[in-house]
Amino acid sequence: MLSLPWLESFAGHCAAAEKGEGNRPPQRLAFFYLPNGVVRRGFFPGESDRELPKFAGQNNVWRFAGKTVPTGSHPLTLTPTLASLHPLREKISLITGLDRTFQHGTDSHAQAASCFLTSVAPYEVENSAYPLARTLDHIAADSMGQQTPYPTLELSCNDHKNNIESIYFDNMSWYGTGHVAPSMRNPRQVYDRLFGTQANTQVRNITDLALGNARDLQRRLSSKDRRKFDEYFEAIRAIETRMDRIESMKTQLTADQIERPEEHLPRNEYIHLMGDLLVTALQSGITRVGTLMVGPERWTTPTNWEGILDKPHSHHAMTHSPHKHLEDLLKLDYFHVSAFARLLERMDAMEEADGTSLLDNTIFTLGAGLGDGTTHQYNDLPLVVAGGGGGTLKLGKHVHCKAGTPLANLWLTQLQCLGIQRESYADSTGTMPEIQG
Q1: CA 380 to CA 100: how far, in whole Å?
Q2: Domain-located, residue 207
């Protein structure tokens, strides 16, 4: 069986299956997490001349063109790191000035990742070094994930082993305090989960298995649906081809007795592939809530950025030598944002039941748990909110928040945009009317 996106030829069946929703597409929620912070001078407007390293944003003062800019909504300015988002500038907002409070007793990297989506305030959980309870993705899925095969999908672009670090450095999704929702890291395992191909060991590609039925189905589709089906079918085929390529490369590296073959696999292709699997899951209705960590926090393992860096590097180690690695760090930040932008463009091209796009019906957030990779600051976090939330978001601007505004305000706003009524979330002090439609 191949899960399919919405097709107008079967709209009547879909409406019956989703009784009460009519033809309105469901909302989705997704997160794209950046490890080890960012280079502030490349990401944030007005910081291009900031000294390195320099603790930034302590008073959440944003300066642009030599002037201090007040809090509130402002025209969207895309820095070089954010430049790839320009084609979708009307469907994104840059959010600056949001803070998290660090609870002393753990490593800053571990808490940055594991507590990014947490639902409790600092020091609220007794007998835990982490202010960590059920995370936002699972809270949202409790309300909106009950009609899908999987309430949530947790993905991570990290197939390395590192016995130095605990699970808190490498997981952002939690069922509750101390109960991690384990991320899937192998693209083939994710693919098998989505399409149930484990039993088909001789023919692993779903497009081969479904090809005969697909041709029969196409005869029953409108010309518009045929084009949509062909595009979807080819997208799945492309995923399969890329998985085969990575697996072949890994086999060859092992055969050549290359030490730690994971370090030599193309990391950028890995991130693109996992992102495409997430989007496919959202498009086909396999899940409505997903998280993607593009890397772990504080991992020392070098990885290969094919076509971007000249040799494998440890991203975390680079952040602690910013003068030496500034240009390479800026390249990686640009790539991460571009990988996010690539997914947004794909989603914006996917038409849904009422003529809107998959992106229009999604709240998709890019963010990091550290405001700077070198200084480990927890304030003024880098955040981009994209999508439309089914008409509940109004974006296309730069929203700069006043000093001390908690990150939880954004999460509370997103829950309310999804129709999940809560008065508070973690240490929130209110919502963000600047982005609520």
Answers
A1: 8
A2: no
Degrees, nearest 5: CA angle 224-213-14: 55
What are the tens digits of pLDDT across the range 17-63?
443 355 689 999 999 999 999 999 999 998 888 777 765 544 455 55
Residue 225 within a domain: no
Residue 244 lies in a domain: no
Question: Which residue in this structure is represented by tokens 């914006």?
Answer: 348
DSSP structure string for 398-422: EEEPPTT-BTHHHHHHHHHHTT---
Burial class (CB in 10 A: 0-12, 13-18, 19+), 110: buried
* Segment 338-380, tens digit of pLDDT: 999 999 999 999 998 888 999 999 999 999 999 998 999 999 9
Pairing relationship of beta strands 67-69 and 383-387 according to DSSP bridges:
unpaired
CA distance 289 to 278: 9
Q: Which two tokens stand for residue 413?
A: 């706003």
* Band of residue 66 on the pLDDT scale cut at 50, 70, 90: low
Locus of tokens 């518009």: 224
Range of the domain at 67: 28-193+276-417
* 3-state helix vs strand vs coil in the chain, percent to 5: 40, 15, 45
What does residue 53 show for φ and ψ, rounded to 5 degrees? -75, 155
CA atoms of 70 and 24, how far apart (whole Å): 38
**189/196 Cα distance (integer angstroms):** 10
| pTM across the whole model | 0.89
Which CATH number fits the domain that encloses residue 311? 3.40.720
**Number of compact structural domains in the chain:** 1
Q: Which amino acid is at 333?
A: D
Domain-located, residue 382: yes
